[in-house]
Amino acid sequence: MIHCENLVKIYKAADLEVVALQGLDLHVEEGELMAIIGNSGSGKSTLLNMLGGLDRPSAGNLRVDGKDLLKFKESDLVKYKRETVGFVWQNNARNLIPYLTALENVELPILLQGRRKRHRALDLLEAVGLSHRRNNKLNELSGGEQQRVAIAIALANQPRLLLADEPTGSVDTKMANQILDLFRELNRSFGLTVVIVTHDPLLAKKVDRVVAIRDGKTSSEILRRKSYQEELLELEQGILAAEED
Ligand code: ADP
Ligand code: MG
User: Fold this and answer.
1) Rounded-to-integer distance, Cα 11 and Cα 224, Å
2) 161-165/85-89 β-pairing
3) Which of 27, 61, 189, 241 has its CA 20 to 30 A from that of 124?
4) What secondary structure letter does DSSP report for 200?
5) How far is 149 from 20, CA to CA, in rounded Å?
6) Average of per-residue pLDDT across 240-245
7) Which of these, 213, 79, 89, 201, lies nearest to 151 by C-alpha position?
8) Neighbouring-strand partners of residue 59
9) Residues 6+ apart with CB under 8 A from 83
């Protein structure tokens, strides 16, 4: 699903350059549910934005679902964002409309896009386990439920790849678990490939595979560094502590 080789992203602003990705490699199989972990500023969001076609890499190779993203024209990018990927962010719920119902919030973007190939809004709510709350106003739903509405919207165009940037950053542990279980369910029932960016060790434990990113590079490139080994150990301890809770 994802072949990413020697990916470089340099942000340029006036006389300042930030190297956010410095030759990153990442390969993700179709149907995988995987997590990317790493400290703040390590390049996680930058990577997701490249994968989702929200921003362009400076150099390297990037193929997603057989498409070469570096060769994309603007029109190709628009099509790709609509048809191949779905996005979930930490504060997705902010983009929802509080005085509309859960169902109306899912219907609205579908109507606005006027697309033929799509799921029905109610089916989407069903898929995220919220059909019983369809007629509740958004502001009557909990944070975790609101996040599930956002996930339903992300699935509207039947994406092949779901990208989630800190999807549980603003909900408690129980809700975080439920959201992860939902990703797992969607992964199993639709064969959806899911890439989650997180620094939550609980989340990282529930996925098929974890890749660490540090200073814009993935773990295979930095595995031999002592500090990285320590990071893994800390993650492991975090998981154990969470299990005891
Ligand atoms: P993470 O998501 O892991 O916290 P980011 O991908 O957001 O990391 O950021 C990686 C680096 O790139 C950071 O040094 C950040 O300050 C920088 N950066 C991110 N976005 C931009 C931008 N639009 N312009 C300039 N620098 C950016
Ligand atoms: Mg980020």
Assistant:
1) 28
2) parallel
3) 27
4) -
5) 31
6) 66
7) 89
8) 8
9) 117, 157, 159
Contact 38, 213 (CB under 8 A): yes
**42 in ligand 1 pocket by Cβ < 6 Å?**
yes
User: Atom 13, ligand 1: which residue's CA is nearest?
Assistant: 41
ipTM of the complex: 0.98
Q: Are 90 and 167 in contact (CB under 8 A)?
A: yes
Check if 191 has its Cβ closer than 6 Å to any atom of ligand 1.
no
Alpha helices in 44-136, H assignment, sequence order: 44-51, 74-83, 102-113, 121-127
40 close to ligand 1 (CB < 6 Angstrom): yes
Is 12 touching ligand 1 by the criterion CB < 6 Å? no
pLDDT digits (tens, 9 = 90+) for 19-54: 999 999 999 999 999 999 888 889 999 999 999 999
Structure tokens at 108: 């609205």
Q: In the predicted model, what is the mean pLDDT of residues 211-220?
A: 78
Q: Ligand 2: distance of its center to the CA of 162 in Å?
A: 16
Q: What is the CA radius of gyration of the chain?
A: 18
- For helices 102-113 and 143-154, give the axis angle rounded to 10 degrees: 20
φ/ψ of residue 207, rounded to 5: -100, 170
Residue type, 209: R
Verify whether ligand 1 is closer than 6 Å to residue 38 (CB atom). yes
Q: Which two tokens stand for residue 61?
A: 């190779």
Collapsing DSSP to helix, strand or coil, 17 comes out as strand
In the structure, what pLDDT confidence band is assigned to residue 240 with cuts at 50, 70 and 90?
Answer: low
**Per-residue model confidence (pLDDT) at position 225:** 43
Select from 198, 202, 136 the least CA-distant residue to 166: 198
Residue 224: predicted pLDDT: 38
Find the 213 Cα to ligand 1 centroid distance in Å: 13
